[in-house]
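Researcher: Please generate the 3D structure of the following complex. Treat every line as part of one assembly.
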Amino acid sequence: MGSFFHRHGAFTPYLLLAPGILWLAIFFLIPLAFLGYESLQSGLFPDFQFTWELSNFSNGIRDYREQIVRSFVYAGIATIACLVLAYPLVYWIAFRAGPWRNLFLLFIVAPFFVTYLVRTLAWLNILADEGPVVGALRAVHILGPDGRLLATTFAVVSGITYNFFPFMALPLYVSLEQIDPRLLEAAKDLYASSTQAFLRVTLPLSAPGIVAGTLLTFIPAAGDFINAALLGTPGQAMIGNVIQAKFLESLDYPGAASLSFVLMGLILVALLVYARIVGSERLTG
Amino acid sequence: MTSVAAASPRARPGVARRAWAFAKRHALAVYALLAVGYLMLPIAVVILFSFNKPAGRFNYVWEEFTFDNWIDWNAVLGIQNAIVTSIEIGLLATVVATALGTLIAMAIVRHRFVGRGATNLLVFLPMSTPEIVLGASLLTLFLNTTAIFQLGFVTIFIAHVMFIVSFVVVTVKARLIGFDRHLEEAAMDLGANELTTFRKVTLPLIAPAMLAAALLGFALSIDDFVITYFNAGGTQTFPIFVWGIARVAVPPQVNVIASAIFIVAIALALGNVLWQYRSAKRAQGAA
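Model: Done. Output below.
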């Protein structure tokens, strides 16, 4: 075996790659092609025919514009909420937590160790009508006597925010942790106030983390359907709920497949717009 | 900051400013603790309600403390099969994905070859595709090839390997990049062949990264709902079981299983941190 590798060194990388890449090709790339094929079919279950049915796309966008817009609005709000909530926490961990750093990082990833569905259901307990949060908000008249938190947009967006928080916090931490503290000392020596040092040194240097965190949070959030299903009502349905219902309940495979591509296409458009705003070299670098 | 400022007489800060700086510093610490509280709150609720004795079918309101749910953890029909299936699929998918992913990482880091960019892209794409699209596209493959694939255990296993591989590649790649190739050359100079070198030098050095990748892979597998839901057929993993029962009423046994998974995961994470800390110390001592 050793001598084989010596004589055929040029093949070695391909031998190493073959099993894994084949798996990804067969079970990731080919399925995407099947999804494309399915999205252009017409007919009713189980008799679908391939007819280049492009109207699946225009019909899907027309019929579910509300859910599509809602997905991107919810994902956008949740991403911004994650950034605002995570930045000060992660800043403190990176610069002030000292020996407690690893413990606090463990706190950040800990929600991942509780099954996604179960930790989402826990928000049912917390936000329940009989629960302490609703009780307190009613007592101080922020909520009316019949006011609720469950089955509202607030519940769905905060569920998404909570569930994807670590995706924002971890890349942010990596970028902040790499900042050389001497740069901040230098800024202070040059008479920068702490605010100026933060705005001119820390914030720009943490930009790669902000960009990575935004992508890692926004993409899964836009396709999520669990939070809307468990914490919301049909009035909070997102595009993921529509795709899921069409695939697994109404068995409208062409409709579901075309909406999947609409979702991917819109995420790509959102990424391109984002790349224009933040600069494309930051997105890829 | 204060020491630098205090050393220069021109910028001696006033008491008020120092108090403000003090308050600011602690405001951040207070915020950090509040944020951690927010992150821990649902976890605490899950664990707390695993000890609840609900009055009716719904486990939403705290009634009474009991150990019964932990003792009769499998008293709910189907829950034991579901968690056993989850663990089986998790172990199988993790072993296969760790092997495949490590090989890909070795090829990418150590070789220059035609198609390296495309390989990187193929590894990156599944991680940046929404789960619902991954699940839906695999389902269309399986629906169009029913002669080969019937939805169930095998299709869940296939799906899990597919989405775990990329995470393994990323994790192991990071470790391989900092790898000193001279160690392998030294082994070869001392007469070891490639296989022996791999077994005695390469493998022990990348083993921690493989272990970390495997732990991550297992965690991803046992937690996955979306991709599994599309490709499960009639087979129930633990998340699928929870989804099914969430529409009726969630029994406290679900909290018991979730708490148990959480405790094991935390123990493993702490163990991994300690192990890395100790091997770092040993390496320091040897140097």
